[in-house]
Amino acid sequence: MSLITDFVAGRTPPDLYEAYLVEGLFTPWAEVLIDTVKPAGQCLDIACGTGIVSRKLSELSQVTDVKAIDVAPPMIDKAVALQKAKDWAAKVDFQVASALELPFDASSFDAIFCQQGLQFFPDKPAALREAARVLKSDGVMIFGVWTSAHDGNPVFGAFENIIAEHLGEDLIPFGPFSFGKQESLRNVAEEAGVRIESLERHELIASLPDVRTLVLFDMLFLGRPAPDGSLQPVVDPQDPDGDAIIEQIIDQLSQETASYLGTYGSLKAPTTALIMVARKI
User: Fold this and answer.
1) What are phi and psi of 274, to 5 degrees?
2) pLDDT tens for each residue of 229-256
3) C-alpha span between 168 and 63 (Å, rounded)
4) Plot region of 280 (φ>0 → left; ψ -120 to 50 → alpha; else → beta)
């Protein structure tokens, strides 16, 4: 059995995402997004993942209804399972859909949220135009996007350096940190024909999992594109021959992030994102 197989232990990627990243990382950032615009009425959560933004919106008395979409069926399945098991997000309707083809009528929502999804959309201006289409004329949309790993996200910056050293520079930047410049967001908004009301840099100290967990989790998704467009893992999750290089990465990242060591091996470290608030023109 390989390190990755032992770590996964039959769990799905959404199970791991929820277990290791939601509480310490994505929950505090969801609160930043929501506090920025004080939403009310009908809300939409784009690229909702396992549903943390939607859950937080559902707790607000001034929010009447929440639609939440993600292109990945396993994420929606996990969100719905959590909704049922823990009686969360009672106001939320989760469904599989693409940000590029939202299944909603024009002018449907008072507020639209997208936490760390924009950088993954294959056509970012189209996604913003589609969000603007379903936004009411006086509505607001808010997007959170990580800055680069080397600009305010030091644990991931160190991780990128180590991956480049051991496995190749073509693997960086990591996808989540690939679109973190203000000018890039301004250009996309201009091309989409939406008006930026504010575009600000925010930093907070987040709780990240221990280094071993962080590395094993990320290695599941680290790959290179094959000729058919599929992503081929750099280290085969089933092959124990990859364990030695993984242990080297864990050891080196542990040394590089020792100053952020928190309780029970977790990491308490700065994380930084750009928060863009936009409206229809």
Assistant:
1) -95, 135
2) 778 899 988 989 999 999 999 999 999 9
3) 46
4) beta
Residues contacting 247, CB < 8 A, separation 6+: 3
Cα angle 72, 76, 81 (rounded to 5 degrees) comes to: 145
> Tokens 């939320």 identify what position?
92
Q: What is the pLDDT of residue 187?
A: 98
What is the model's pTM? Answer: 0.96
Q: Which two tokens stand for residue 53?
A: 């933004």
E strand segments, 11-59: 41-46
Run of H or E including 67? strand 63-70
Q: How confident is the model at residue 1 (pLDDT cuts 50, 70, 90)?
A: confident
**Which of the 8 DSSP states describes residue 234?**
S
The single residue listed with the structure tokens 């959309």 is 121
pLDDT in tens, 34-46: 999 999 999 999 9
Helix/strand/coil percentages in the chain, nearest 5: 45, 25, 25
